[in-house]
Design goal:
One of its GO terms (molecular function) is galactosylceramide sulfotransferase activity. Strand 5 and strand 6 form a beta hairpin. It is built from 16 helices and 6 strands. The strands form 2 sheets. It has a 4-stranded parallel β-sheet. A two-stranded antiparallel ribbon has the order 5-6. It is globular, with a radius of gyration of 23 Å. The protein is mostly helical. The protein has a domain at about 45-165 and about 215-360 and about 395-415: 3-Layer(aba) Sandwich (Rossmann fold).
Length: about 425
């Protein structure tokens, strides 16, 4: 029998790797204590859906400073187009990633050297709406003190399916069959150890770094929840006190948390919060994914697998439940006029979609006029405006910055900073 002898260096690397894997499994997936048997909920966390919720003040002047946390796979591209159009139409200043980067240092917090200098004469910014990790201390140092904060969430299981496809978790987990997502849910600890392994960093994670995963509480991560993958950050997934306080801070800071499943209801609230015109919140759906397990429904999946999913993503689940209920509480406080405005907005959107999706599409100078109502002055929608709603406007914004003589802020070499 041949005996494999490992060099001491190799031997200890193997020992360290196996130890790390064991710790991953023990810390992240250890059996729940009797105190943890019940899944997180608004009720057992003692949260109030009305906390910090007040009717929006009557509009006087449109608000131009806004932070939108662009949550992954939540319809955020469609929402971002709204903020891009608003800023472009008014010549406002955006916080943009430095050349060569796709995000504001996601999945790490923003650092000096990972965003461009302002093109505004005063050096300030108006709109921050690219992918980033929410950190109030850092963002408030970049953005004006009177900025409004908003984000968007999506029903967690629907979002999980989209993220599983978008981030290629079957590839990262080395799953090779026709039902990769169900295979993953059968044994999450096994596949998460593989996904988070430092050995996959260069070949499968690129800028995301070891310890990162798209399989657990992705919306919460984007909103600044400490899941332990970043250096010197403790994993708070099972810390009930931390979770409660983190959610309460979000309730206090965010003037509006939009819900993808109620997108038009959310946009009417956004218009009221920001004192914008109706035409500013028109939209066309962008970046819709197509994959073979998209139609899988909760009631068609083995209950054991769904229990695995819920326990592994319970922070996202309670996050969505809280702000979905908060959205309807906000709508209730807006009074009876809100229902009339929403009805008007939905009618306008039907006309806009019918116009923009004609075959062949309308020419740039073809227009349709939206008549005056209690909520808007009459305004035209042109074929060119349809293109702007349908296309990604980030390149248009960066083109303006390329002509700007101001240099990119570089406190250290940006390509040495982790992140995307």
């Amino acid at each position: 029998m041949n005996v494999i002898r490992l060099r001491p260096v190799v031997f200890w690397r193997v020992v360290v790797f196996l130890t790390v894997c064991g710790l991953f499994r023990f810390v992240l997936y250890s059996p729940k204590t009797s105190q943890d048997d019940t899944l997180l909920s608004i009720e057992n966390l003692g949260l109030d859906v009305s906390y910090g919720v007040e009717p929006y003040p009557t509009c006087t002047v449109e608000r131009r400073n806004v932070v939108f946390i662009k949550n992954h796979k939540c319809g955020s591209d469609t929402a971002t187009n709204v903020f891009h159009r608003f800023g472009l139409d008014r010549g406002l200043s955006f916080v943009l990633a430095v050349p060569g980067r796709m995000t504001l240092n996601w999945p790490y917090v923003i650092e000096p050297g990972t965003y461009r200098a302002s093109k505004a004469d005063g050096g300030g910014f108006n709109i921050m709406c690219e992918h980033q990790i929410y950190n109030e201390r850092i963002i408030s140092a970049i953005m004006p003190f009177n900025s409004e904060y908003t984000t968007i969430l999506r029903e967690p299981f629907s979002r999980f399916k989209s993220a599983f496809n978008f981030f290629g978790l079957e590839w990262r987990a080395d799953i090779h069959n026709t039902k990769p997502m169900l295979t993953y849910l059968e044994d999450i600890p096994r596949y998460e150890i593989h996904i988070r392994s430092p050995s996959n960093t260069q070949s499968k994670k690129s800028c995301m770094g070891p310890g990162w995963t798209a399989g657990q509480n992705g919306m919460s991560l984007d909103l600044g929840f400490d899941n332990g993958f970043q250096l010197d950050v403790l994993d708070q997934t099972n810390n009930v006190t931390y979770i409660r306080q983190w959610l309460q801070k979000l309730q206090k800071r965010f003037g509006l948390v939009m819900i993808m499943e109620h997108f038009e209801e959310s946009l009417v609230l956004l218009r009221r919060l920001m004192c914008w015109r109706l035409q500013d919140v028109l939209y066309l759906v962008r970046n819709v994914g197509h994959y073979n397990f998209k139609t899988l429904q909760l009631d068609t999946i083995d209950p054991k697998l769904m229990d695995n999913y819920r326990r592994f993503n319970q922070v996202d689940i309670v996050l969505y439940d809280l702000f979905n209920k908060t959205l309807w509480r906000r709508i209730e406080l807006e009074g009876p006029g809100y229902a009339d405005e929403l009805r008007q907005f939905k009618g306008v959107m039907e006309k806009v979609r019918a116009f923009c999706y004609t075959v062949p599409p309308p020419s740039n100078d073809t227009q349709m006029v939206i008549p005056k109502s209690d909520w808007n002055e009459a305004f035209p929608v042109t074929g060119f405006y349809c293109l702007r709603m349908a296309n990604r406007l980030y390149n248009d914004i960066t083109y303006i910055y390329q002509k700007n003589p101001k240099k990119v802020r570089m406190s250290r070499q940006w390509d040495k900073v982790p992140g995307c």
